[in-house]
Design goal:
Shape: globular
Order of helices and strands: HHHHEHHHHHHHHE
Keywords: Cytoplasm, Iron, Metal-binding, Oxidoreductase
Strand order of the largest sheet: 1-2
Largest sheet: 2 strands, antiparallel
Number of helices: 12
Strand content: under 5%
Organism: Croceivirga radicis
Protein name: Inositol oxygenase
GO biological process, one term: inositol catabolic process
Bound molecules: fe (ii) ion
Number of domains: 1
Radius of gyration: 18 Å
InterPro entries: Inositol_oxygenase
Length: about 290
Amino acid sequence: MKDLKNHKNLLSIEDDWEDDLKRRYPNPDEPVKEKEEFRNYVDSDRVAIVREFYKENHTYQTYDFVCKKEEEFLKLQKREMSVWEAVEFLNTLVDDSDPDIDLDQTQHLLQTSEAIRADGHPDWFVLTGFLHDLGKILCLFGEPQWAVVGDTYPVGCAFSENIVYPEFFQLNPDTTNDKFNTKYGVYEANCGLDKVKMSWGHDEYLYHVMKDYLPEPALYIIRYHSFYAQHKENAYTHLMNQKDQEMFEWVKKFNPYDLYTKAPVKPDVAALMPYYKELAAKYLPEKIKF
Ligand SMILES: [Fe+2]
Ligand SMILES: [Fe+2]
C-alpha cells in the first residue's frame, strides 16, 4: 500500500471543514472564541476553501448521482479487508495542512472512542467511535472530497435552508426538477429515513459495510453522524418515523465526541491496541467486504 502515500493530500479539506463545524456548533463547555481569533478565521483562505468545497458538493449531489454511487459502491466488491487493514489503509490519508495538530486518521478515531470509553458507555458505542470514519477510504478509491466528507442531507426532496451554504443548491439541477423540489419530493410524510436517499459520502457507505454486524444505534450513528441539518437543526423531522426519532438520541449523544475530542496529545496506539483488537473481534468477522 506504499504507493498510496502520495495520496496524502486527498483529504486536505478535513481540518478546514471541522473548524467550520466548530464555528457553526461551538462546544458549550469551552470558552467563547475571542473576536480577534474568530476574525482571523473568517478572513482566512480557509473560509473560501470550505465555501468552494460546499459549492461543489451542493452542485453535484443530485438524486441521480447518489443512485449511481450506490450502484457502484454498495455491492461491496472493492476489497476484502480486516478492520486493521482498513485502518492502515485509511491512515495513508494524512492531512498535513494543520501543523499544530498533526493527527492521523487512527488518532482521530482513537480520541473519539477513548472519550466515549472514559465516560463509561457500552462497548459497542466505543467501537462505533473507533470505526465511524472508516468510510473515508472512499478517497483512496479515487472519489473527490465533496463525495466523501462534509455535511450530508436528503436528496429527492427540497433542500432545507438549514443546510450549510443553502444558496449553492441553486446550482443543483434537482432544485428546478418538479419531481424533487417539493417538501416531500419522492417520499411520503414520516416514511422513515431508511427509505430516504442521503447525499453520498463516507457515512452511508460505512453503514452498508457494517450493517450486518453492529447494533442498531451504532448503525444510526455511523449512517447519520454528518446529518447536521437534522441532528442539530431538526430540519427533516417530517421524513422521520418514531424509530428514527428514538435512534437520533444516540446520534446526538455521539456528536460531541466526534467534534470536540481532537487534542494535540496523541493516543498511545500500541498500548490501546489489545483492548481494541478484542473489542473488534467481539463484533466483527475477520474479513469485511468494502
Ligand atoms: Fe465522519
Ligand atoms: Fe469523525
